[in-house]
Amino acid sequence: MTEPKTKVRTAFTKDDRGILNNWAIEPKMYFDDKIDKKAEEKGEEQGGATEYAELLKGRLPLIGITLLVLAMIGITLVAIA
Question: What global pTM score does this model have?
Answer without folding.
Answer: 0.40
